[in-house]
What does this fold into?
Amino acid sequence: MTLPPWRPLLRSALQREGRSPAARWLQLATVAADGTPRVRTLVFRGWDGHGRMLLYTDGRSGKTAELTRQPAVEICWLLPKARQQYRFRGKVALCSIAQDADHCSNHWKQLSPGGRALWAWPQPGQPFQASAEYPAEIDEATPPPEHFLVLTLTVERVELLDLSHHPHRRLTWSLAQLWTEQRLNP
It folds into this structure.
């Protein structure tokens, strides 16, 4: 698979971020049932063999219903050391254990024991119960729960705002335009 021209730029920016865990945090914007925006932080998990961005989520969270109702999203990824902001637009597909057990299990095993533990916590967004269990780690041998979802974003448009230049450099690429680069005013 030939990489789109923005992928090497992103890889270079990620290398400048070093080993900072925050370099993998990105913000996902969705639309709630009432039409209002919702933004939350997720962790970048890599790219699949088709060039789609991989993310994980808890199927019990509000974003699952939002993505099911409206799969069109935008992701904003700020890389402060590189002084670059990437915005990705596209459509998200949700994959559950019921849909593809092997696919989800493979991703589940890639999580750290502490990362897997989050899916054993009580349902996100519900009132806190001090008596509930919040395990710190879950062993790799534990099968993924039904609410472990793998999200794949099919990227349709990318915009880069590079603040390391004067004037700032703003570039965009679109799948519909075969990833032809266009420079925009910052």
Observations:
- The mean pLDDT is 96.
- The beta strands are 25-31, 37-43, 46-47, 53-58, 72-79, 84-95, 148-162, 169-174, 182-184.
- The chain is about 20% helix and 35% strand.
- The two ends are 31 Å apart (CA to CA).
